[in-house]
Design brief:
The complex is a heterodimer.
Chain A (H helix, E strand, L loop, with lengths): L1 E9 L2 E9 L3 E5 L6 H9 L6 E6 L2 E5 L4 E2 L2 H4 L1 E4 L11 H9 L11 H7 L15 H14 L4 E5 L7 H18 L3 E5 L2 H7 L2 E6 L2 E7 H7 L10 E12 L4 E6 L2 E6 L8 E7 L3 E4 L10 E12 L4 E8 L2 E8 H7 L6 E6 L9 E3 L1
Parallel strand pairs in A: 3-9, 3-10, 7-8, 8-9
Antiparallel strand pairs in A: 1-2, 1-4, 4-5, 5-6, 10-11, 12-13, 12-15, 13-14, 15-21, 16-20, 17-18, 17-20, 18-19
Helix pairs in contact in A: 3-5, 5-6
Chain B lengths: L5 H34 L5 H13 L2 H12 L4 H10 L7 H25 L3 H9 L4 H12 L1 H17 L2 H7 L9 H9 L5 H32 L3
Helix pairs in contact in B: 1-5, 1-8, 2-5, 3-9, 5-8, 5-9, 6-7, 8-11, 10-11
Classes of the chains: A alpha+beta, B mainly alpha.
């Protein structure tokens, strides 16, 4: 259980955040400037709030009223920075072991061999940090933080500097850590696909305030107003039911339908969370024929929300899932869809990428 | 060129001893002052900075005279050091080392300060989150990353010490075997008829010493930078 309740006045910015979370991975989501990094800096002890408290389980890291303010080195909070911040004068191995040496043996729960194994760092150990690629640097940074034996791992936009394929690779490693180490993590990002793929609980921040906290599906249902218009999404919990090797596709099933997406790495039966951007979803009144779109999903209109001057968000219930389609007002008028109507949601398989589909 | 005479060897040994001792003793305070100037803000910082840089802009003779007044046997600092610790600077080789240290100090501070200012301080923050105390982070991250500047500063100060003349001759005079370093010995030769040959020989030695020091520092800096992956 992580209990944060803080007020911090920075230059022209008031951070006032209070939330409790008890999830393997807590996603901290908001636009840039929303105060995401300020929150985790306060948790790590890098910045000091003027009021409030920060507790992890029964340990108090900070409490302004009781004048408790542990220095960063005493908090045991791992921090993975956007740009790795590996020590340039040390090789990979020395970077990894920097924190481990500073922790008493009694506090250690993970060995160097295990970390090297989990993150696939074996071939990198003797390398100099400046010879590493961006993805390799982030893996080393995560390993270094783990070996400092943290009780909580903070990841601050760890994928920001990486390209698409590397992003997915690092996410897979983080998912592995969550499943094998049971180490609580805070994942900070302004990318909805990343957050929905990785986080179990999402804390939504805007202008230094906590707007919502809850399951990824619930939170993103409510936040169309906060996030950039183009980013409205729906999240569908699915399982892998088939791989099509020759055509390099994977079929996902959820209650009420199926999704065909580009080939995923997982095994049959794995739980996978798919993020569908609202603007990638079209609607049709009849099942269309002679069309390239692979995902044609029958559903029922749950709600119609006028969003912008030109656009409308139509929520389509498919089994227990809700898929949001962003269409123009003209399309709404021509189709005349109303709550209760049967419709088909059309989603191109190629609109999914490795970042929008991941392990739940 | 014939072999070096015992006198010449003595002068070289004394000069090296003065320069090395002055550098060794001024390095720790120079790192401290550089750190304070690079990282802290406090009232009077500009004045402090100016005082540190004074030896760079003052005539060396003025510095030597100030040392004579302060650190002489009867001076306010010199008398205390003599009485309590038995340390005497006046007219001793240690005084020459003190004069070299003072003259080289601003050069050393400047180079180290520049190096410290170039360090990404978030590296230190990262080290703190990994469990390093302030002091440990300074020793394990900050100092190694500032090493190129520390080497450069040490060399500049060492070279300044080898060449130091004005402050030394004013403070500790020109005593053969005690305070007569290379520049002072060269000066002495030029003051006697027929001393040009001796002055030339010592000047060539000074050139060789300087080149060796420069090459060594260059090599050390390169190794340090290679270690840091630059």
């Amino acid at each position: 259980m992580i209990d944060v309740d803080i007020d911090q006045w920075l230059d022209r910015f008031h951070l006032a955040v209070a939330f409790r979370a008890d999830a393997p991975i807590v996603g901290l989501f908001g636009r840039s400037g929303a105060g995401k990094t300020s929150v985790i800096n306060a948790i790590a002890g890098i910045a000091t709030p003027q009021r409030g408290h920060i507790r992890i389980n029964d340990a108090t890291l900070f409490d302004a009223a009781q004048r408790v303010d542990l220095p960063p080195e005493a908090r045991r909070i791992g921090y993975v920075f956007q740009d790795s911040l590996l020590f340039p004068h040390l090789d990979v191995k020395a970077n990894l072991l920097y924190g481990q040496r500073l922790r008493p043996v009694a506090e250690r729960f993970i060995e160097a061999e295990r970390v090297v194994d989990l993150l696939g760092l074996g071939p990198l150990l003797a390398r100099k940090t400046h010879t590493l690629s961006g993805g390799e640097k982030q893996r080393v940074a995560i390993g270094r933080a783990l070996l400092a034996q943290p009780r909580l791992l903070l990841l601050d936009e760890p994928l920001a500097a990486l390209d698409g394929a590397r992003k997915s690779e690092i996410l897979t490693y983080i998912e592995r850590l969550r499943d094998e180490l049971r180490l609580p993590m805070f994942y900070v990002s302004h990318s909805i696909p990343e957050i929905t793929r990785i986080a179990d609980t999402v804390v939504l921040l805007a202008d230094g305030k906590c707007l919502a906290i809850g399951d990824a599906e619930d939170v993103f249902e409510r936040i169309a107003a906060v996030i950039e218009d183009d980013d409205a999404v729906s999240v569908v919990e699915t399982r892998i039911i088939a791989h099509d090797e020759p055509e390099h596709l994977t079929t996902l099933a959820f209650e009420g339908g199926r999704l065909v997406v580009p080939r995923l790495q997982g095994a049959i039966g794995d739980r996978v969370r798919a993020t569908v951007r609202a603007r990638d979803v079209s609607l049709a009144l009849q099942r269309p024929a002679g069309i390239s779109i692979l995902n044609v999903i029958a559903g029922c209109v749950a709600s119609v929300n006028i969003e912008g001057r030109a656009t409308v968000d139509v929520r389509v219930a498919v089994g227990r899932a809700l898929i949001t389609a962003r269409i123009t007002r003209r399309s709404l008028r021509e189709l005349d869809v109303q709550p209760g109507h049967d419709v088909y949601a059309l989603i191109k398989a190629v609109s999914f990428d490795q970042n929008s589909v991941g392990y739940a | 060129m014939t072999e070096l005479t015992p006198d010449e060897l003595g002068i070289i040994a004394l000069s090296l001893r003065v320069a090395i001792v002055s550098v060794l003793f001024s390095l720790p305070p120079a790192i401290l002052v550089a750190f304070v100037l690079a990282r802290l803000n406090f009232p009077g910082k500009t004045l402090f900075d100016a005082i540190i840089h004074l030896p760079l802009v003052l005539p060396p003779v003025v510095v030597g005279f100030a040392l004579l007044v302060l650190f002489g046997r009867k001076g306010p600092i010199g008398s205390i050091l003599d009485e309590w610790f038995g340390i005497v600077f006046a007219f001793r080789w240690t005084g020459a080392a003190l004069a070299s240290a003072i003259m080289g100090f601003p050069l050393m501070v400047r180079a180290i300060r520049l190096s410290l200012a170039g360090i990404d301080r978030r590296l230190e923050v990262a080290a703190r989150t990994l469990g390093g105390s302030r002091l440990w982070v300074f020793a394990s991250i900050t100092l190694p990353l500032a090493l190129p500047g520390i080497i450069t500063g040490t060399l500049l100060s060492f070279a300044r010490g080898l060449g130091e003349f004005g402050a030394t001759i004013t403070f500790v005079s020109n005593i053969p075997g005690e305070t007569q370093t290379l520049p002072l010995a060269i000066y002495t030769f030029t003051q006697v008829p027929g001393g040009d040959a001796g002055a030339l020989r010592l000047s060539l030695i000074a050139v060789v010493l300087s080149i060796v020091a420069l090459a060594t520092s260059e090599w050390l800096t390169r190794s340090a930078e290679r270690v840091q992956g630059r």
